[in-house]
Design goal:
Blueprint lengths: L9 H18 L5 H9 L1 H13 L4 H5 L5 H21 L2 H10 L17 H11 L29 H7 L21 H20 L2
Helix pairs in contact: 1-5, 5-7, 7-9
The protein binds zinc ion.
The site of zinc ion (ZN) has 7 residues, from loops.
């Protein structure tokens, strides 16, 4: 349901609807009034459709070919577009590489199952954790000269793993995350609880900057 309502950004949904409408019109008999109007009198619409067809790699042949499901093609393209948007937003290029090395079973252009079940902000947190972008000292080496943990002050290096899994300074919020679970696509509720804990940990780090 999330995917149908507001999860995929509105601009992509609008594009999808426009293309589907265009395809419906193109499939109509040439003598039909709607087809005459849109092809002859609405050059703006035609120009926009031309651009959209190009953006979504659709040819007039795809529309007339009954075996090709353009609706599915556009839907799939939009998922990929959105997936890419989220990655771009949540990550820097070098950081995402480390995540991809970690997750050899995730392909860059694949739509992970959990994305269908989580909200945008939740996905963003998870991608940050997987891409080692939680603002620990170790993840932000240029910002801190002293790398020891600011929360427990026990001399441990402030790595993401330490902060999430071991640090006693976060144990009030921490609901025992096993570090490697961050990289697993498990049960939705478990992922969601884990994300909530990571959000809290990020908050503690920010408050102790
Ligand atoms: Zn610590």
């Amino acid at each position: 349901m999330l995917a149908e309502t507001g999860f995929i950004p509105m601009d992509l949904i609008i594009k999808e609807k426009k293309i589907n409408q265009h395809v419906r019109i193109q499939k109509k008999d040439e003598n039909k009034l709607i087809r005459k109007i849109t092809t002859k009198n609405s050059s703006l619409w035609q120009r926009e459709m031309g651009q959209l067809m190009e953006e979504y790699n659709l040819t007039p042949n795809d529309i007339s070919n009954k075996k090709i499901n353009t609706k599915e093609m556009v839907k799939k393209a939009n998922k990929e577009k959105f997936w890419k948007q989220i990655q771009d937003e949540a990550t820097q290029k070098s950081k995402i590489q480390s995540w991809i090395i970690h997750r050899d079973n995730i392909k860059l252009r694949q739509w992970p199952e959990y994305m269908n079940r989580l909200g945008r902000k939740e996905c963003s947190t998870l991608i940050r954790a997987r891409g080692r972008m939680i603002p620990t000292k170790d993840n932000m080496k240029t910002k801190y000269t002293d790398q020891t943990c600011r929360l427990c002050k026990q001399g441990y290096e402030e790595t993401q793993k330490h902060i999430i899994e071991e640090c006693v300074g976060t144990c009030n919020t921490q609901k025992q995350i096993k570090y490697e679970d961050i990289f697993k696509d498990g049960n939705t509720e478990e992922i969601r609880n884990m994300i909530r804990t990571i959000d809290e940990i990020e908050e503690i780090l920010k408050n102790n900057e």
